[in-house]
Description:
It is built from 5 helices and no strands.
Amino acid sequence: MYFEEVIRLHWEYGYGGRRISRIIPAGHSTVSRRIAVFAAENAAKAVSIKKKNPKQPTDSAPGGAIHSNDVKALRAEVVRLQSQLKHEQLRAAACDEMNNVAENKFKIAIRKKVGAKQ
Length: 118
C-alpha cells in the first residue's frame, strides 16, 4: 500500500479519504482508516503540522474570502442562464402549439398516449 503517499496527500494538500482513493488505487475506507491510524499514533505531530500550515479559507467556508469579481461573474452567469431558460420555455411553447395545429389540421394524434397497451 502507498501509506506514505496517502499521508502526504492528506497533510500537504488537505485531501480527504475519497479524493485520495481516486488518486491512489485503494478503497476510500482503507485510505480513511490509514489516515485515522496515523492521526491517532501521531496526535502531537498532527497538531503541530496543522498549526504550521493552516488551510486557506475557501469561498464556501464561513468567513471565506469572496472577491467582488467572483460575485460579478456569478451574477452575469445567472442572468445568462435566466435568458437561456426564457428562450427554451418559448421554444417549448412554440413546439406545443405546432403540435396542436398539426393534430387539429390532419386529425392525427402526434403526442404519445398516456396509458400503455395491455
